[in-house]
Amino acid sequence: MGVQQKKTIELNRLSATRAAQLLARRELSAEQLLRACFARIEQREGAVRAWAALDKELALTRARELDRASTQGVLHGLPIGVKDIFATSDLPTRYGSPIYENHQPSMDAAVVALCREAGAVVAGKTVTTEFATFQPGPTRNPHNQAYSPGGSSSGSAAAVADHMVPLALGTQTAGSIIRPAAYCGVVGYKPSFGRSQRAGLKTIADSLDTIGGFARSVDDVALLASVLMRDRELRELDYDAKPRIGMYRTSQWRHTDHATRDAYAQAASVLSRAGAQVDEVELPPVLCSLVQVHADIMGFEMAQSLTFERTRHRAGLSSSLQALLDAGSQITAEEHRANLVRVEEGRQRAHSWFEQYDVVLAPSASGEAPFFDQGTGDPLFCRVWTLFGAPCVHLPFYTGPQGLPVGLQVVGRSGDDRRTLAIARWLLNVLRPGEGD
Amino acid sequence: MGVQQKKTIELNRLSATRAAQLLARRELSAEQLLRACFARIEQREGAVRAWAALDKELALTRARELDRASTQGVLHGLPIGVKDIFATSDLPTRYGSPIYENHQPSMDAAVVALCREAGAVVAGKTVTTEFATFQPGPTRNPHNQAYSPGGSSSGSAAAVADHMVPLALGTQTAGSIIRPAAYCGVVGYKPSFGRSQRAGLKTIADSLDTIGGFARSVDDVALLASVLMRDRELRELDYDAKPRIGMYRTSQWRHTDHATRDAYAQAASVLSRAGAQVDEVELPPVLCSLVQVHADIMGFEMAQSLTFERTRHRAGLSSSLQALLDAGSQITAEEHRANLVRVEEGRQRAHSWFEQYDVVLAPSASGEAPFFDQGTGDPLFCRVWTLFGAPCVHLPFYTGPQGLPVGLQVVGRSGDDRRTLAIARWLLNVLRPGEGD
Question: Where is the Amidase domain (chains A, B) (predicted)?
């Protein structure tokens, strides 16, 4: 009964995996855990502002139900944050936009319902940028409130980093999971494209939008993903080989700061010493040109996906989003088709290129988080991987000169999610030893 | 001013293309056209039951606005039917399910908003089967009410066939556009996968759901599609070569009735005489085995997409859908991944196979529509094409022994939508000469 003797406030720091074990053994109650998370939220939310909607009584009612019930699934009793771009039947869903100030859906998004089916307690909705694009919400970086948490999954990354919840849902269309994970110093996982059902997600770019999540360890994020993708193999991350790692500076290396370069050099050296095969690699140059192709595909699709808002509620859109949609509207279907052909060629080249390496290790962002009033940062280092539908895992293991987190992303071959997560876990254990409960 | 002298009741039979010309020249008003369509609806809806929601006053208000405004776009003043699987901000959206009896979304689906931006008047919502799957709605085949209109886009196909509206939106996950088009005797077009944004569509299988439409001619359906896909090239369907046609009985030929076999033989002979290169072809046998793979991928994805309904409103689901979702829940992620690999291989083989032919001509359905009380028919002849993401156009040109429509579908290479539509137009002009206004 050791855990029950701990102060309530510390339960919120438990990993999801550990808490799930204690909950399953009934050594911890869902209500206790939720109360600890809400105590943290109440203490810190004024500074961090991670939440777009909270309903403590609703969550407590659900937690007590779970405490009375038999174990529902692998998330039984775990509090989660849900990015406010997913529909929830019992919490408002505003998409980070004043247009939807009073919007209450009648249903849960598919992944929210899957998490609930597996026993999760939705603690609340987390802040998203406007329609998961670039206009920031109110969320601050939990490590230093002068800085941005990144976007678009700002609240989910911040809430997990600040120990408000162990798990949170996010989405990535450009760099909306990996970048906030990097700025907030948590593990972010963007699965291969197409592995979760997006029903009830406010989609903005059908060929890019990908559902993923945040946690404080690879095991935890894989636990969540195993529910989102209904794939129990994602909970089996044993890996006892020595990975072949392609260290890749990317064509955007000139944009990296010293902290990222130091983290990169440290990773190369530490991983080598741990027995990994570490090679500096280059991708075929044609693939680098796809950064702009990603932006154009996203622009073309966004201008259509947000047609209702663009035509009927234009004044409710930020001026920067208006400009993005106007630019996207200028892209012709002919240009778009040519872009899709380039992507398909690129995907196939990347796919065969990956046969030489188990994973690529590359920057997640240019460096530490920008100041809050400078926006949520640039998805530059994520666009091509998202375009290829590759699984990406951000590994937080370094601290920059401002005292903010820095790390790198592991990129796997599209479809190789289990192996990518297993290697990510191996790498993080080497890069950040001794963490865990 | 010839058109204005016609009886109001006849305007509803105008093609979309012809009506759009008259509307643009202000020789026809949107209000006149809409009133003609509503006169037809009022006359026939009791028998056909194509509509899930109608609001004549709302539509008339919009038509009068358009009559006062400058021309908005290529659909200016054209009434359309919207399958009740798309969200509409001003009409209820029930997805063919009692669970959503009182559901009123706050937004228009992206494609509805695009049609409205182009000047379309939404006449109402058309009947869908339950969540666009198999449980029939009330719609009857307009040619003979003892028969099914097909599904899942039942109301859209029936409304267009019965001259209630010139254009209607549909979706296809298995055979939900091509099959009802075949049974109702209209042109149905399922575009290449991924060419329209699905925001606001109630998706059931993210890797398959495809937005398309219905009309009474290829020109008309291409006009609609040019808005859905924001691709003006789809309105340029001139084709003056002689197409190379692969006539393909498919591995399901044993399920075809005499009417389909007669239509097939007639097409081969008529098209040959018109100068087309007509070869009987076989696809690699491995591709035929993908019929079951399609069903399994759809089942796996549906069981997730409809998790909220499955877990929270199970009693509101038909027993047949409950059984489908239960079966889909039994498919493991490992099986699903293996299926995706087979599809990818199949797609690539099909893609290179298509280099020998401009299009494939194949059955759309086993034959004439089944009796109403026998369900909406089987998507057997559509599953593999949907799985490959290929553009498909149903061509109605034959009448079976029950007096019901029969035809064949044109299948193009994925991405070749313009050429597929252009050849479909050429073929229909040969197979059904002298139609049009």
Answer: 33-421
